[in-house]
Amino acid sequence: MNEEIDRPRELHPPYLQKVGQRGNISIWVVDGTYVRAHLDEEFTNYGQHEVFDCIPENEFWLDKEAVEDEQKFFIDHLLLEHRLMRQGVPYDTALEFADKKEMAERKRAGDVHKLTKGKNLPDPEKVHVRLWKKLETGISVWIVDGRLVRSVFDIDFTEGGHDYVYEFVPENEVWIDNDLEQEERPYVLLHEMHERNLMAQGWTYTKAHEDASKIEYHYRHHPNELHVALSKEGWEAG
User: Fold this and answer.
1) Residue ranges of the chain with pLDDT lower than 70?
2) What span, in angstroms and rounded, lies between the C-alpha atoms of 168 and 230?
């Protein structure tokens, strides 16, 4: 990789590093925390202009990974998704084709074998990295291997999830993606716990997710209030 790509000049938020070039497409690692707080709270692991207005044309954005091992999957996904959408293919269809391509590459990388090893069904406990906390309510919050979750259970899993949304998440568990930077995990935790609590009260996923996104966005801009907000959702201090 040349010097220009290794050390891009005149960086400004959210740009962190240029990591590649595909034709006229510049590929950037960006500060996803900044993007979610100031540009689009729905930005996750990666994106391109046809899906996110905040991303300039002819640029792909990749969120900075805490564990940098999925860039190739994301770039290849974006190349196909972007090309199809530029040809007039609707987003949902382009996403489906790009997901299939990405999933095939994940299988070739051996991710599926790590969780199955000859068995018919993968074991969700094998994606557990460490227990963050067991709450008095009986809910266990786990840091999980996000790459393996995406490769084996749901390619669209990002940031976090819980048993009310994902059937593969064991009962009374909340999962937080280990790909998230440490400082961002509490905001995603708040989102997932708030969303789960609302769904436990009978809210639909769509309505609960929308409310949780609003709550998350608010506290990203009021971090001093985050501890109190988490306590209201059942998170104990300590």
Assistant:
1) 1-10, 117-120, 238
2) 25
